[in-house]
Specification:
This protein is of the alpha/beta class. A hairpin with a 5-residue loop joins β21 and β22 (726-728).
Length: 738
């Protein structure tokens, strides 16, 4: 039976790796084949097919519930009920609508809505809204967070931006929203938002700086409610009963073990209900219930049974959960703990157990984190030695009891004040650790490295004395120290990142790196920090020889300060230098400057008589073995005309579309002079500017120029100097990108 359950789990997990869903006829045939196989010894294959079928049917149902393409970018009036906990960050109200209704067309069952400058929205209210709808999508860059997969895992069928709206039916605050408002109103030494995250799972109160500190120290799991918190609370309640029984204070007529198990599970379920029973909480409660049942009645079955049953239950309830990184991290972490403490001849002392558990979990999760393209906390194993007991003994009990006793103002508020102070002290320590050892983003590695690294991690988790255990170190370190492919002399690897409505292009020669523009920043949303910087680090780049900013507009230079602060930058060259951020040591772009890196020639041009803004963009020409790329920033037709009149050699095989394909650029004269075979367009899907303009696109087609659009293809890569085509991130098929 254990083999069958393992096969079922593998079948459910296959969904995560499918490039495309099987056709409907195959989905219908697989369960029939599985039923035919059940009576024979091939029943594991039957269970595997059952798992694959259920996962694919569930995924197809979610895909079919997405917004139709004909409505993508359209504005519709609709009505719906606000669910969950709406939040407001930087003046943007974000909330979720369930079962929205429109008179014009059926809509997906769940919408994720943003209202810029909108009023306060409460859970349970009914609104009539004019919403500009978008199909689920997101930026697509190598190794980056896949927002489109995350939306599908949440079964959100569309996103949207509110244009206008009116409240149809008000409601009293939901009990969770009422608790949140009370928590945010309490004086908790500035950590009210953190307490709301810990108690209710509402992480909107954590600032970007807080998030960075938690990520750098590997303590996100402690402040954003997850299985860790469920386990901590259940462990405290179980330990309380066990301690009272050991010290003789527990009633003799009441068996302590069943009481401890019931109390622990009841407390966990109550906490999960308070936190809204999101999928991570559901998963934790299922696993806890099975562990307690195993502890109470079925210990003879071994520890692997609860793990296997919980894995299957979670995947059967929601097969799409495998698209979320947290699913893999939580189950792998539990499996590591089982390996650490199972099958050993002697017991460790408690301090030895605690410290070794932290280090071995860090080692076991290392290849998983790198495979999921997640940052690795260098300080995490040490910091968690202090942070986990700090949260479990002080912060979490104080926060929960303070919330419970809010009806008694002096008691509840005092407890929350103490909880906030404890949390603030924790963040002081975490900030010191984060500054000393920030998180590390590993470079991209070949696929064959991961199985070997996982094998190395498994060997290191085995007890001392196991043969070949020492081989675990070189195998594990493959994912960290694997040699990176070097770019041949005279060639340039060009990566146009998918940054939405903006521009960021990374150019790498054999020994040098140049970043042309740094992506947009709008308010606290910094694409330079969130997309461009991780892409640079994932490419194995530790410094930039030059950051060339075409001009000072926020969609081109907004991300530059964050990148300059995080990485050593040899030189910052910029057009429109007078308007650049003050913290950047900018040199003005000069007309005709030329330099050579690794037999690759770079040349700049700028219209010295240009006004500020787009016309002052610094143009860069790159020549690698006779194959040329022309990067133009946001120059317009007058600047294009000036460039041609001044005799700058614009002939190139590849052209970055001036001003994202705006109607005010890409003149006929420029296209005739450049005569490119392909044009790279960087823009946001359904952007408010209408880029690229239909007239410009028709002009490209007229000249026989191939277009490569980041909104459709994601990040685009070409190897200049080989006279080959381009690669695109979205060409790597995933079933959720259909």
């Amino acid at each position: 039976m254990r083999t069958g359950m393992l096969a079922l789990a593998l079948g459910l997990l296959v969904l995560r790796f499918l490039p495309a869903l099987p056709p409907v006829w195959l989905m219908l045939a697989m369960p029939v084949i599985a039923l035919m196989l059940l009576p024979f010894r091939t029943y594991p294959l039957a269970f595997f097919l059952f798992g694959v079928t259920w996962a694919c049917v569930s995924a197809k149902s979610a895909l079919d519930d997405r917004l139709p393409e004909r409505l993508d970018g359209q504005t519709l009036w609709l009505e719906g009920k606000v669910v969950g906990l709406p939040n407001t960050v930087d003046g943007v109200v974000r909330f979720q609508l369930d079962d929205p209704v429109s008179r014009r067309t059926p809509l997906p069952g769940q919408l994720r809505i943003a209202w810029y400058g909108g009023p306060a929205v409460q859970s349970g209210e009914y609104w009539r809204l004019a919403v500009k709808l978008k199909r689920p999508g997101g930026l697509a860059n190598p190794g980056a967070f896949d927002y489109q997969a995350w939306l599908l895992a949440q079964r959100i069928g569309a996103t949207g931006t509110v244009v206008d709206g009116q409240l149809l039916r008000a409601t009293t605050h939901s009990w969770r929203d009422t608790i949140r408002q009370r928590l945010l109103a309490v004086e908790a030494q500035g950590r009210q938002g953190g307490l709301a995250a810990l108690v209710l799972g509402d992480d909107s109160g954590l600032s970007p700086a807080d998030w960075q500190v938690l990520q750098d120290t590997g303590t996100v799991h402690l402040l954003v409610i997850s299985g860790t918190h469920i386990g901590l609370l259940a462990g405290l309640l179980y330990g309380l009963v066990a301690g009272l029984a050991r010290w003789g204070f527990w009633p003799r007529f009441l068996p302590w073990l069943p009481s401890a198990c019931v109390l622990a599970l009841s407390g966990a379920l109550a906490y999960g209900y308070l936190a809204g029973f999101e999928v991570p909480v559901q998963r934790a409660c299922v696993m806890l219930g099975l562990v307690l049942l195993w502890r109470l009645r079925f210990r003879h079955l071994g520890a692997s049974w609860p793990m296997l049953i919980a894995l299957n239950l979670v995947l059967i309830v929601e097969p799409l959960i495998s698209l979320r990184p947290g699913f893999w991290l939580s189950f792998v972490a539990v499996g590591i703990l089982m390996m650490i403490f199972g099958g050993r001849l002697g017991a460790w002392r408690w301090l030895q157990s605690w410290s070794r558990a932290q280090w071995l979990i860090a080692l076991g999760l290392l290849p998983v984190l790198l495979a999921l393209s997640l940052p690795v906390s260098v300080s995490g194993p040490v910091v968690n030695l202090l942070a986990v007991p700090w949260v479990s003994i002080f912060i979490l009990p104080l926060a929960l009891f303070g919330t419970f006793f809010l009806a008694v103002p002096w008691l509840g508020e005092s407890l929350l004040w103490l909880a906030g102070g404890s949390m603030n002290a924790l963040f002081v320590v975490l900030a010191i650790a984060a500054e000393a050892a920030p998180a590390w983003t590993g470079p991209a590695t070949p696929f064959w490295v991961w199985p070997l690294s996982l094998l190395g991690a498994l060997l290191l988790l085995l007890p001392n004395g196991v043969p070949l255990r020492a081989l675990g170190w070189p195998l594990l370190l493959l994912c960290v120290l694997v040699p990176q492919k070097r770019i041949p002399q005279g060639e340039v690897e060009v990566l146009q990142l998918d940054v939405g409505q903006g521009l960021a292009i990374l150019l790498r020669t054999r020994e040098h790196t140049l970043l042309y523009d740094a992506g947009p920043r709008f308010g606290e949303f910094d694409i330079g920090e969130r997309v461009v910087l991780p892409a640079i680090r994932r490419a194995g780049i530790g410094h930039l020889d030059m950051m060339l900013l075409s001009h000072a507009d926020a969609d081109h230079a907004g991300g530059a300060p964050a990148i300059h602060q995080a990485l050593p930058v040899g030189r910052v060259l910029a057009g429109d230098a007078a308007r650049m951020p003050a913290e950047l040591p900018v040199e003005s772009c000069r007309n005709g400057e030329t330099w050579t890196w690794d037999d690759v020639t770079f040349s700049t041009w700028i219209w010295e008589q240009a006004a500020q803004g787009n016309q002052a963009s610094c143009v860069l020409r790159v020549d690698a073995r006779g194959e040329r790329l022309l990067l133009t920033g946001d120059i317009d037709v007058p600047a294009e005309r000036a460039m041609l009149e001044q005799g700058f050699d614009v002939r190139a095989h590849w052209l970055q579309a001036p001003h994202h394909g705006s109607r005010s650029s890409s003149s006929k004269a420029l296209l005739q002079a450049v005569s490119p075979k392909g044009v790279l367009i960087s823009r946001g899907r359904n952007n408010a500017f209408g880029h690229p303009h239909p007239l410009v696109m028709s002009r490209y087609r007229w000249f026989g120029i191939e277009t490569y659009d980041s909104a459709e293809l994601g990040a685009i890569t070409l190897r200049l100097g080989r006279f080959e085509g381009v690669d695109a991130e979205r060409r790597e098929r995933r079933f959720w990108r259909e």
